[in-house]
Amino acid sequence: DTKYHNTAAGQTGPLVRRLEGYGKLDGLVEGPWGEGSKDLHSLVKTISETQVANKARAMGRELSDKALGLVTSQVRKYLSTSFVRANSLCLLNRLCFLGEGAKAAAGRRDLAKRLEEGRKRERLANFSAHIRRQGLSRLGQIFVD
End-to-end CA distance of the chain, in Å? Predict the structure, then answer.
């Protein structure tokens, strides 16, 4: 504010007032090995409790702590996998700046991209088979790109 809004030192300018208007900010931070901050763990807990509460309402009965544990582990697994994958992709994307190894790195990135696309197609096929509640082999269908 002092630099851009000519606010006197020690006074609150319009930018700081606007930022303070958002209230407390959560520090959702993930480390290079998939570890998370306290606020991230709090978010995981909130998401899990909300999902269990929604399931309990839908079923018309209370769910056990075991159900909360299962949902929490699913949320953690999903988030940690996403975080580690994102970190890996960031590292792979920076390899192109390393000089002689850039061509090999580009090949590895292309391979990683193709593998990820294959995993995505496989997850979609598994999801579709699960939603249908019947095996694809019994129907004689096959997924083809």
Answer: 55
- Per-residue exposure over 7-37, b if at least 16 CB sit within 10 Å of its own CB, e if not: beeeeeeeeeeeeeeeeeeeeeebeeeeebe
Residue with tokens 């249908």: 132
Question: Which pLDDT score is estimated for 144?
Answer: 54
Is-contact 2 13, C-beta < 8 A? yes
How far apart, in whole angstroms, are the C-alpha atoms of residue 50 and residue 37? 20
Contact 50, 75 (CB under 8 A): no
**Residue 30, helix vs strand vs coil:** strand
Instruction: Compute the residue count for the chain.
Output: 145
Q: Hey, what are 97's tokens? A: 């700046």
Torsion over CA: 97, 103, 104, 108 (sign): positive
Angle of CA points 63, 67, 70, to nearest 5°: 170
- Looking at residue 118, its amino acid is G
pLDDT (average), residues 46-51: 94
